[in-house]
Design goal:
508 residues, Beta-Lactamase, Heat Shock Protein 90, 58% helix
Length: 508
């Protein structure tokens, strides 16, 4: 694995950096090889051009010098060489006789003559012209000189400097290097951009999503609209997160079900305790309580007793009656008869209870409004137990509402879910709301528990809403409450529609 040194430590190269470096190195090798081949070919072409031009010039000079030698006009040779020197000062022409003596020189220097003398004598004797490069410094052409009869007159040497060729080759090299560097910069930039868009950015998004999932956010996802390997990776990640989310949902549901089961077992345990307590109370204090209540009633009716005695007797009557009611509620809660289910007109059943409580509402100076929808389906219920639910809820609402307040009871079509994630069911809802003092927030989660009451000072036993909850659950319905201190309370009870209940198998 490759590493970069940073602040004295080594850290691994990112995949995007590796790809960029690899593509840049590959591009450099390819473009460098291409540039070298182009320069090599350019040098070959320049050499060919220079050689061709030199051959033409040397041939023309050969013809002119041979003619002058045949005519023995040495002055013409010097004139030709002088004119050539004026035209191109860089070219040097030397003429040798058959013995290798220098007979003419365009530049008047003998250094080149000493170097090329041997080759010139050899070319003159064998009649084989020679054209060769001396590196990239000069080009040498050596041609034999012949008389009309074919005899040797010596040889001619033409030396051409290659400074122009070197300049052209240097300019071409510079241009090639600049072109390669420009192409490398462009390719590197495009590679970097493609790596950022196609590799680094998607991987960074995947890493962020993984971090979110590790932190517990199972709603994190990665866009997977691409059809390449990165898109497939994002799709697999999203599928994995979806499976994790579903697994967590199932675990939460299992935990909630376990909590509900534990709460139900606790409630059953309470009910068993209440039943045992009720039976014991009824047996142990029922008869003595009746005797006490009867004697107290008798004392209140005796006019010959002092007023203080009769007042104490009246208190005994009231308190013994209260104890009797509590015992009766306990017995009713613990030994409630099984519900007799049938199709019930919920509005008519509730309206009967409303009519029964109208005198009580007038006595309390509370306004009681009853509202019902024009068309309502029948519900699956026990009419007597529905009236018991209505009576308990209305009694609580009247007790919580001050004089001049308002209690509203409504029967409306509705729907509900028996549990989170369950299918929604059609129902008819019984709504009871008041303008009373409301329920404290800390009490809202406990108001349906047996023996929990906020009316302890007013004689409440904490069994009314427990009875209501038990009845509603037995009917397959749902009860909900919303309240805030100072703004009243609202109870909503959902009773399943009869047709749906029959389809669900709740009644025959």
């Amino acid at each position: 694995m490759r590493y970069l040194r940073s602040s004295g430590t080594l850290r691994p190269l990112r995949i995007s950096t590796k790809l960029a470096l690899g593509l840049t190195a590959t591009s450099t090798i390819i473009l460098g090889s291409f540039g070298l081949s182009q320069l090599w070919q350019e040098e070959i072409d320049l050499r060919k051009t220079a050689e061709h031009d030199t051959r033409l010039l040397a041939t023309a000079l050969q013809v002119a010098v041979e003619k002058a030698l045949r005519d023995r006009q040495e002055a013409d040779i010097r004139a030709i060489l002088d004119e050539l020197g004026h035209g191109d000062a860089g070219i040097e022409v030397l003429v040798f006789d058959t013995a290798g003596r220098l007979t003419a020189n365009s530049r008047g220097s003998s250094r080149t003559a000493e170097i090329l003398r041997g080759t010139a004598v050899e070319v003159g004797s064998h009649n084989l012209p020679v054209v060769r490069f001396e590196g990239l410094s000069q080009l040498v052409a050596i041609l034999p000189l012949r008389a009309d009869d074919g005899s040797s007159l010596g040889s001619m040497v033409l030396v051409r400097p290659l400074a122009e060729l070197r300049r052209d080759l240097a300019a071409e090299t510079l241009w090639t290097i600049l072109l390669i560097l420009t192409l490398l910069a462009g390719i590197t930039g495009v590679n970097w951009l493609l790596v950022q868009l196609q590799v680094r950015r998607p991987l960074a998004g995947l890493i962020r999503a993984m971090g979110a999932v590790r932190a517990g956010d199972l709603t994190a996802s990665v866009p997977s609209h691409r059809t390449d390997e990165v898109g497939a990776l994002a799709g697999e990640f999203n599928s994995m997160v979806g499976e994790l989310r579903e697994a967590r949902r199932q675990l939460i549901e299992a935990a909630e079900s376990r909590e509900a089961l534990e709460a139900g077992l606790q409630r059953v345990d309470k009910l068993v305790t209440v039943g045992q307590l009720s039976a014991g109370l009824a047996h142990e204090i029922g008869s003595p309580l009746q005797i006490l209540n009867g004697r107290a009633h008798a004392l209140t009716g005796r006019a010959d007793l002092p007023a203080e005695v009769r007042r104490s007797a009246q208190i005994l009557v009231e308190q013994s009656d209260r104890i009797t009611r509590i015992v009766e509620q306990l017995l009713s809660f613990a030994r409630r008869r099984a519900a007799h289910m049938g199709e019930v007109d919920l509005a008519a059943t509730v309206e009967a209870v409303v009519d029964l409580l109208q005198p009580e509402t007038r006595r309390r100076a509370v306004r009681l409004d009853f509202e019902r929808a024009d068309t309502l389906p029948r519900v699956l219920a026990d009419a007597d137990q529905v009236q018991q639910v209505t009576m308990n809820l209305l009694s609580n609402a009247l007790r919580a509402t001050a004089r001049g307040g308002r209690v509203r009871i409504g029967v409306m079509p509705s729907s509900f879910k028996a549990a989170e994630g369950a299918r929604e069911q059609a129902s008819v809802s019984l709504i009871v709301e008041d303008t009373g003092s409301g329920i404290p927030p800390e009490a809202l989660t406990h108001i349906f528990e047996p023996f929990f009451t906020t009316w302890g000072e007013a004689g409440g036993a904490g069994l009314g809403l427990a009875v209501v909850t038990s009845i509603v659950h037995e009917h397959g319905g749902l009860i909900a409450v919303s309240s805030a201190p100072g703004s009243g309370s609202r109870f909503t009870v959902h009773f399943p529609v009869a047709g749906v209940a029959r389809a669900e198998g709740l009644i025959a």
